[in-house]
Structure formats: structure tokens, C-alpha cells
Amino acid sequence: MKNYYKISVGQFGYPQPEDKYGKITYSLDNGCPTCWVGHEQKNAFRFGKSLKRLKKQITGLHWVFDQVFVREIVKTTFEKENLTGINYSVPVYNKTGEPIPEFYQLRVDTILSAALLNDDLNTEICEYPKNEKTIKFLKAIESKLIEGPFCGQKKYNFPQGQILKFSKEAFIGQPDFVRTYEWFGSGGSANRPILVSERVKEIIEHNMFKGASFNKVALV
Fold this sequence. Notes:
The protein has four helices and 16 strands. The protein has 220 residues and is of the alpha+beta class. The chain has one domain (4-219). The strands form six sheets. The protein has a four-stranded antiparallel beta sheet with strand order 13-14-1-15. Strands 5-6-9-7 form a four-stranded antiparallel beta sheet. It has a two-stranded antiparallel ribbon with strand order 2-3. The longest helix has 9 residues, at 72-80. The mean pLDDT is 93.
């Protein structure tokens, strides 16, 4: 059985255009517009800054916690090492729509079966708030979280300093890159974290690619 790790990356800039990147980048045909569970990417991510100042080979975007972007050298290395579970797409510059040279998004489409075993994580249900103070606050800031619609689905808050535990059976025969079945996030943000095999971690560290960190998950 392979060891798996939750991969985290730093952020470089914000998805563009900042005021409506969600509607441009994602489809909510099968998702909730309130909690964002079920959204699917439909268009390339748009960057607003030149990436020439980016010194790291691996990066992410602010507000987007489940996507990884890599330089050409990382893509070439991953392909040479025959890592599985990934495809690649090309982000674009926001102003021109032109592809960003030698820069790629990792597309991870393998979704695990339901496997999370942590029963003590904080959760959120997409529903009309029950706490009067929360309702008053959300109304005061004109938050969309008070408007609905509400899908009733659950997502987990990211744990702090706690190891995620999964059923090991869900990982049997899985590729090097997978996504959790469960959704994580808070408020109007939801994502499915990427988990990578120990081999991915070793390749990144051996080649001294900068920008990624790893937290081991427990398979039990």
C-alpha cells in the first residue's frame, strides 16, 4: 500500500477577473451557488500578472485551494517518471486570453470513494443559519450566505494540526494523484483536496522543486 500526502502549495496572485472569476472559470450546473459544493471547472484559469517574477516551480492561486500549477520542467519530469492520475491544461493571461508559455495546471480528475474517517472535524451544512447573531451579521454585510438557495450538503472545515484519516481500501489500485470524495472549505468556498503518492513527494524533493509542502494522511 502506497503512502499518500495532502499536497499544499503557495499562492501567486489572484484568479482573474477577481470580481467574477468564479462564474467565468466554473460551471454550477451540478453545484450549489451558495456553498459552492459540486462546482466543476469549465474554462482555463486566468492570471493577471506576468509570471516572470515567480521563482518557484510549483504554485497556486489565492482563494483557490485545490489547484496546482507547474513550470515546464515539472511537467517534463512528471511525464518522464510516468506519474499517473494527471493531465495538463494551459492557463491564460486575463487581458489577452493568450496561453501562458511553459506553464500548466495539473488536472486531477480521479475522485476517491467516500473514505474520510475523522468523525471529530468541524462541519458546515448548507442551510439557512440558525443562530440569530449569525443571521444579523450576514444580513448586515449583505452576504449571499443568507440568500440561498440551500442544498443541505455537508463540507468539512480544514483541520489545524490534525492528521486526516482515510479508509485504506479506497486507495487500492489508485493512481499517484487523486482527489478526496469529501468537500472541504467554509462559507462560500468548497474544494476537494489533492492527495499524492509518496513517489510524487520523493520526485519533487529529489529534483528540489520549490513551492509544495506535504502532510501525510493516515490510511487505516
